[in-house]
Automatic annotation (TrEMBL):
Similarity comment text for this entry: Belongs to the short-chain dehydrogenases/reductases (SDR) family. SDR65C subfamily.
Domain of life: Eukaryota
Name the UniProt record assigns to this protein: Tropinone reductase I
MF terms in GO: oxidoreductase activity
Species annotation: Vicia faba
Amino acid sequence: MTALVTGGTKGIGFAIVEELAEFGAAVHICSRNEDDINKCLEEWKRKGFNVTGSVCDILSHEQRKRLMETVSSIFHGKLNILVNNAAKPSMKKIIDNSDEDITSIVGTNFVAGYHLCQLAHPLLKESGYGSIVFTSSIAGLKAIPILSVYAATKGAVNQFTKNLALEWAKDNIRANAVAPGPVKTELLGSVMDASEGGGAINAASYITGQVIAVDGGYTA
């Protein structure tokens, strides 16, 4: 089993990588920070995990293309799992978001994942049984103050997940989104441990076109 996890060095992304590696998957990660990648790779090597990594700013069209070329080379043209996890947070009132803020957040949180799906399609199809998982957010399901642009991108991700599942079912490719509540990261206080969100990836084994809220009942 092979997997690509974007934003795999921290938070839920890190937990997802560990979850997949523990199941024996060969995983490739990307991050903008080479030092973070190397630190994680050293830790995973000590644990005996099969993980590789490369630097990629997913906001860059060309870097996304190079990332998928790297993944194709490492995994010999096949990919079982694409986890679109990397995202840019934004906590501003609606009136305070600039055009640059909106462009950057939408580009990182939605356009990048859309393009990576396009690039990964032949690899996922070639694997015979592909799976796409988006890390979404409860902000895409429920109105939360000062998260308007971020929430809009996650709402778009949720709908895109359903369209992917519909259009690519014929290629034996599934698509699901995991929508965590607030998670313990460097940016937020502790509400839910990142491993709890990462563990939800396994829940996607038999379903497609679903947005799975992992929030302790917050959106119930």
